[in-house]
């Protein structure tokens, strides 16, 4: 669960790099996803690994969409094990 919380915090930090008018949308989107997936069994390594992988992949997609350097997600990459 600790890695999931770290990933969520890092995603919110990355949201701050997005254009100002898009930040509320992506912050809300991240929160909703975190809440929706909080029921994932912390002992199910496969499910957690898949979820963290999707977190990283989607974050890169959003950063690329707004031309933010992917290097900004380096810490998220480490947290997610990507």
Topology:
Blueprint: H1 2-15, H2 23-36, H3 45-65, H4 74-80
Structure characterization notes:
This protein is mainly alpha-helical. The chain has helices spanning about 1-15, 25-35, 45-65, 75-80. Helix 1 runs parallel beside helix 3 and helix 1 packs antiparallel against helix 4 (about 75-80). The mean pLDDT is about 90.
Largest sheet: none
**Mean pLDDT value:** 92
- Share of helix, binned: 55-70%
SSE ordering = HHHH
Number of distinct beta strands: 0
Output the number of helix runs: 4
Assembly of the depicted chains? single chain
Question: Which structural category do the helix and sheet elements fall into?
Answer: mainly alpha
> Low-confidence runs (pLDDT<50, min 5 residues)?
none
InterPro entries: Complex1_LYR_dom, Complex1_LYR_LYRM9
Family: Belongs to the complex I LYR family. LYRM9 subfamily.
Organism: Ilex paraguariensis (yerba mate)
Protein name: Complex 1 LYR protein domain-containing protein
Please give a quick description of this structure:
The chain is mainly α. The protein has helices spanning 2-15, 23-36, 45-65, 74-80. It comes from Ilex paraguariensis.
Attribute tags:
82 residues, mainly alpha, 4 helices
């Amino acid at each position: 669960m600790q890695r999931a919380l770290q990933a969520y915090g890092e995603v919110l930090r990355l949201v701050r790099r997005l254009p100002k008018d898009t930040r509320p949308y992506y912050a809300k989107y991240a929160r909703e996803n975190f809440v929706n997936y909080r029921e994932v069994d912390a002992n199910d390594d496969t499910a957690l690994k898949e979820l963290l992988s999707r977190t990283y992949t989607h974050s890169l997609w959003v950063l690329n969409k707004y031309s933010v350097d992917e290097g900004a997600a380096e810490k998220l990459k480490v947290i997610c094990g990507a």
